[in-house]
Each structure stands twice: as C-alpha cells, then as structure tokens.
Design goal:
It is built from one helix and 28 strands. It is mainly beta. It has a single domain, classed as 7 Propeller (Methylamine Dehydrogenase, Chain H). It is globular, with a radius of gyration of 19 Å.
C-alpha cells in the first residue's frame, strides 16, 4: 500500500502556489497563451509556451513565490511572494518585474484579479485579504478575517470574493464593494483550492480531508460533499473549473493524480496519474489542456482534457506547486498597436480585447511619464 509522504521541505506551513495563464511580449495576436509557473524553491517564474510545451523565459521574483494570477487582458501577472510578504507585478510583453507591492499581509499566498482588471485581491497566512489598485500598484484596502488563508477567487460579476480559510475549515465570502466579510461557510478540513463556476451559482472548495465542498452561492450553503481520491491518502490541493463549468480538476497531492469530476450531476469520472506531489491545477482558456504543478519533481504535467491523459511533462524550477485556476484569455497584442488583430475573430471579442489593451497602453504611457519625471 502506498504511504503518505511529506511535501518538499521548503514548502512548510501553508503551502500555496498558483498556476496562471497569460500572453507574453513575444506573442502575436491570436497566438496561444503562455503558462506562468511559480517556482517557490528557486524564487522565479517559468514561462511555458502552451503551443510547444517548452519553457521560453524565466522571471526572477521575490522569495518563495506561490500564488499567481493574470489579468483578463493578459498583460500583467501578479505573483504572491510567501517568503517576502510582497506581490511581484510581471509585464508579460517583456517578462520583467515592473513593480513590487508591499503591505499585503504576512505570508501572502493566493491571488485573484477582478473582472475589470482594476483590482487585485491577495489572501495571506495572517488572515488578511488585501486589495491592490492595478493602476497604482499599491494597497488601497484590506480586511482581516482571522485564521490562515490559502486560495482566493472572484465571481464573474465581480461582486464577491471567496477565500479558503485553511485553519478555520471554512470559505469566507467578502463583499467586493465594501471590502467586508459577508458570511463564513463551514466546509471540510483545511480547504486549499477554490473555484467559481462560470455562471457564478456554485463555488467549489478542495479540502485536505479528501472531499470537495459544493456551495450554492444564492444561499451560501454547502449542497454537496464529494469524496475524491483514496480516504487513506487524502490531501487535496488546487482545484480548477473548466471554462464550460461542466468539469472540475482536483489535485490529489499524496496520490500523484488529478481527479476529473463532472458537475452535472456531480461525480468523479477519472483519476489521471501525473508527477510527484501535484498541488495546483489550471486549464487553458479553451479547456482543451490542463496544467498541473508537481511540487516534488520540478515538473508541470500537461493533460489532454479529451482523453484525460498526460501528453507532455515540462521541467521547470524547484517546487512548482501551481496552486489555483486563474487564466487569461488569449489575444493581447504584442505592442500598443491595437489595429493588428487576428483574422477570423468575432467582432465583439475583438472589440473587447482592443478596449482592454488600449487601457493597458494608457497605463504604460502614464508609467513612462512618471519615470521621465523622476529621472528629471
């Protein structure tokens, strides 16, 4: 019988990391997204080309990077540095850190970006949820929840933020407008990963007792509890919701597998063998590929969602946990020329991406003006 084993020694305490998908500066309009993998043991972020499953860049960040989230435009990736109490802001066009935000709380772990890309939410081990302004890269608000926090997610409407409280066995619901706690929902033991359905009517929490709690957001009540993996090897890590909302992917850390769960009706469909000590899971924007950070062997497993089988294994840095399910839609242009869009895109999608990128380019212009002023 397989026995439980400890996670890598570096990953003591609240172990969190996040896999984020985004575009890099080298991308052209219509290109595949890139995956940004936080390597907590080597203090950097590996950038994987999703089309080729190859590492194309390595971005140095602060100590023990864990959580990471890309903005919807795909131009910024935010990385929570657990060991430095900071958040690194990566410009995906240059793959460089353009800002480091402090004052986010002690032992920051999970990160989520608001739907309109204006706010970044950070969950920390001291129970703080901090709000960062994406325009100024500074903390503009916070709320104390008590207990150690891990995962964090924002609903599609941008009105609620959901946070897993690892030490209090609960999911905390935060009002995004007032930055205050609405309610606390009891779930399984030591929840880590969390995800929201595309419709916003369900929240899923992966618990360390080998269960997934299903929450009805209209009542803030648990409506189902799903056993996942082997009871004798229970410890769930990250959780990802597919873009369609029909599937969940949950990492079974001590079993070296990822469970595939149908949501309607809810049932476990398959267990996919991956690398050692998988912790985080994310899907690409189409749902065709699933990415898994394997903390014990320094790799990322790429799962084909159609066949539920690993089709590639990518070597990255040390202790890549890849906690969470944060993705950015592809299509951000490689420069501030908003005229060059991909052929065959729907007009509405093209217009939305253009507006998002124009906003980012305006922000960059402001940054350049500020830098010029400071130089003077």
């Amino acid at each position: 019988m397989k026995t439980q084993r400890p996670l890598p020694q570096r990953l003591s305490g609240i172990l969190v990391a996040l896999l984020a998908l985004s575009l890099t500066a080298a991308s052209v309009a219509g290109a595949e997204p890139f995956a940004y993998i936080s390597n907590s043991g080597s203090n950097n972020v590996s950038v994987i080309d999703v089309a080729t499953n190859a590492v194309v860049a390595t971005v140095p960040v602060d100590r023990q990077p864990y959580g990471a989230a890309a903005n919807p435009a795909g131009t910024r990736v935010y990385v929570a540095n657990y060991g430095a109490d900071s958040v690194s802001v990566i410009d995906t066009r240059s793959n460089t850190v353009v800002a480091t935000v402090v004052g986010v709380g002690s032992r920051p772990s999970g990160v989520a970006v608001s739907v309109d890309s204006t706010k970044v939410y950070v969950a920390s081990g001291d129970g703080t949820v901090a709000v960062i302004s994406a325009a100024s890269n500074s903390v503009v608000g916070s709320v104390s929840t008590g207990g150690a926090l891990t995962g964090i997610a924002v609903n599609p409407a941008g009105t609620r933020v959901y946070v897993t409280s690892f030490s209090n066995n609960s999911v905390i619901v935060i009002n995004a407008s007032s930055i205050s706690v609405d309610t606390t929902i009891g779930v399984g033991f030591a929840p880590a990963g969390i995800g929201v359905s595309p419709s916003g009517d369900r929240v899923y929490a992966a618990n360390s007792d080998g269960t997934v709690s299903v929450i009805d957001t209209s009542t803030n009540a648990v409506v189902a509890t799903v056993p996942v993996g082997s009871p004798s090897l229970s410890m769930l890590g990250g959780l990802a919701v597919s873009p369609s909302g029909n599937l969940l992917y949950v990492a079974n850390t001590f079993e070296d597998t990822v469970s595939v769960i149908a949501t309607q009706p809810i049932a476990v469909l398959a267990d996919v063998p991956v690398g050692r000590s998988p912790f985080g899971v994310a899907t690409d924007p189409t749902g065709a590929r699933v990415f898994v950070g394997n903390g014990a062997d320094g790799t990322v497993s790429v799962i084909d969602a159609t066949g539920n089988a690993v089709v590639a294994t990518v070597g990255v840095g040390l202790d890549p946990l890849g906690f969470g399910a944060f993705v950015a839609a592809p299509g951000a242009a490689a420069s501030c020329d908003t005229e060059g869009e991909a052929d065959g895109r729907k007009q509405q999608h093209r217009k939305l991406r253009k507006q998002q990128h124009e906003h980012d380019c305006d922000d960059d212009d402001d940054d350049e003006e500020t830098e010029d002023h400071e130089d003077k």
